[in-house]
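Throughout our pipeline, every protein is held as a single compact record rather than as scattered files. Such a record has a labelled line for the sequence and another for the backbone structure tokens. The remainder of this section carries one protein's record, kept here as part of the documentation:
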Amino acid sequence: MKFSQFFSLLALLFFLISCSSDSETDLKPEQNGTPPVSTQIPTDTYFPPNARTNEWESISLKTLGWNEGKLNNLYTFLDTNNTDAFIVLKDGRIVIEKYFGNFKSGDNHTWNSAGKNITAMLAGIAQEEEHLNITDATSTYLGEGWSNMSLEQELNITIKDQLTMTTGLDYTVDDTFCTDLECLSYLNNPSTFWYYHNAPYTLLDDVIANATETDFNSYFSKKIKEPIGMQGMFIKVGYNNVFFSSARSMARFGILNLNQGNWNGISILSDQTYFNAMTNTSQNINLSYGYLYWLNGKNSFRLPNSVNEYKGSLIPNVPDDLYAGLGLNDQKLYMVPSLDLVVVRMGDASNEELLGPSSFDNEIWELLNAIMKE
């Protein structure tokens, strides 16, 4: 069975067993009332209420001066490319929200590697609370012997190396998701080589859990999920710890990012030095990678499953200040500060199965740009 097929089966199981107490209520308009629609372009950021209802302010394409005639082109493209959910927010307000097939607004979907953004922010929160420092050796929180390396080699790897994909662990193993000791061997000195290696990323969850002396899901729930009204949870899938939620919950996390860790006056991540480092180039090997965030507008980029460097911007059709969570099978969380936009896409792979960036990114934004032109 392919890895992506296993994900799909698990996602289906999660949909079936999800409790209604941990999902946003999927009410029909006549049951919940029609959410307010802005008739003038607001200048403030809207934060949807945390109550588990469908209430969420929207703004029309007409009010924004966007080209409504191009919307069907986008919907057709998304539908024919295996999309389940698609959301566009402007200043926190819903401009576009569309579900395809049998998928509904309250249904949960895997984020795959887009969930790395959550882990990166949790690491920053844990550092702010002085549970850890990202310059600490990973062994401080995993103990000695967490890998197949010598003690000296282990001690050279830091939390920051895990956040930036520069641990130097051997990526030529049969399974780069494997966190067993025999899969974690030395290949390069830390901070000297970039490779999209999922095993050391997954171990970050244990680092954070051990540093905070709590369960990883519990820490996430207390620090991010409950304060901003998200739902969903991390579930162990093979070696991976994968996040599942509704599309609207992903959109909430996007709003939190656009507001640099602040939610309607509540400080979720106060450390702006960490936030800026997280959403900007973190090392000089892959300029388009922060702390588990993909970055646009750089001179070059590297991709998962490759050691090659490619010249140019990661997604040419998007403003340079975009940063994103990009997951297997085209799970997308785009955040564009200059446009005050959050864009969410969930579904199956549009074309080939890729771990992060894909040609789908540029194609989506070509169609979005056509809509946003007056």
About this structure: The two ends are 47 Å apart (CA to CA). The mean pLDDT is 90. The CA atoms of residues 35 and 340 lie 21 Å apart.
